[in-house]
Amino acid sequence: MVKRRRRFKQTTTLAQRLTQEAGRLRERAGQLPPGTEQSALWRKLRQTETALRIDALLSSPEHVAPGHVMALTDTNRKKQSATS
User: Fold this and answer.
1) Distances (CA, A) of 48 to 16, 18, 36, 67
2) Global pTM?
3) CA–CA separation, 62 vs 84, rounded Å?
4) Who contacts 12 (Cβ-Cβ below 8 Å, separation ≥6)?
5) Is it the case that residue 72 has pLDDT exceeding 70?
6) What is the pLDDT of residue 50?
């Protein structure tokens, strides 16, 4: 028997979920006394905020791949067309 993968349709955007998570982490870290648990929450908060910035960058209409990535894809296309 093949095990079927459970599908879940997100009802909120990634940015909304990350914003909620950042707020929750900020509130929880502010309630804790200084220590390792608080430091771990601040670290997780920075990661969440970085993910938000990356999501905003990638979803912006003016987003263009960096030049070195475009150069690599152009090189690969030339190689493929030369062998075809």
Assistant:
1) 11, 6, 18, 27
2) 0.64
3) 33
4) 20
5) no
6) 95
- Give residue 84's identity as a one-letter amino acid code: S
Give residue for tokens 């979920």: 17
Backbone dihedral angles phi then psi of residue 7, each to the nearest 5 degrees = -100, 145
> pLDDT tens digits, residue range 1-53?
788 888 888 899 999 999 999 999 999 999 999 999 999 999 999 999 999 99
C-alpha 60, offset from chain centre: 14
Instruction: State the Cα–Cα distance between residues 40 and 82, nearest whole angstrom.
Output: 52
Closest by CA position to 17, among listed 59, 46, 43, 55: 55
Phi (first) and psi of residue 65, to 5 degrees: -60, 145
How many Å apart are CA 8 and CA 50, to the nearest integer?
Answer: 25
